[in-house]
Specification:
This protein has about 240 residues and is α+β, with helices and mostly antiparallel strands. About 40% of the residues lie in helices and about 20% in strands. It is built from 6 helices and 8 strands; from the N terminus they run αααβββββαββαβα. The radius of gyration is 20 Å and the shape is globular.
Length: about 240
Amino acid sequence: MRKWITALLLIGLLVSGVGLYFYGRSIWVPLYQTFSGKQSLGEVVSVYGPAAEKRMRPFFHAAGIAYPPAAVTMIALKAERRMELWVQHGDTWKFVKTYEIAGASGKLGPKLCEGDRQVPEGIYRIDGLNPNSSYHLSMRLNYPNAFDVECAKLDGRTRLGGDIFIHGKAVSIGCLAMGDEAIEELFVLVNRIGIRNVTVIIAPRDLRRHTAELSGDLPSWVGGLYTVLLQELLRFKL
């Protein structure tokens, strides 16, 4: 009996340790960085940049696009769990690469309030790069944007949440976790071209191929949002 109890305790400790490592990173990583020292944006780019750009250049070459491009659009499709990278080529956009979304919590539908674990849906900008993220590297989205705020006023919602990122690793609560290698490539690319030249579109599914499924518990404005997302996505044709 004692052996079974000891084994269960060890399993519990192991599970707790694994959970803390993955889901408690926002707690222990900043503490670790306090003692080990934080890195500057330039230091991080110098570490990951050469390898990341070496991996990226063949995809740009295959697309007939010079690296770095003038502007990029990232299209995150929640149902398909993938992110497409498109680059500006004159007056058009050309597809470069697809990334798997390694982790994203919630269900299909926009983010409505703080703590709902939802990944937002809409058209966003990147408003900051974090070289000392708890999840390797991260890029912060400007959620809630003006559209999110206006819709919240219509619904009478006040606590919209925030701190939504595209980051590394494979676990996430309301963010898009891309894995470390992918975030290195995207982070270095965004730093190279500037955050003002980056657009992020997050859609519930690939609306170019599938109609949106609107459940009855979603606000009435969601249909209009999906119409706008479809119009935007039709500019990017594979």
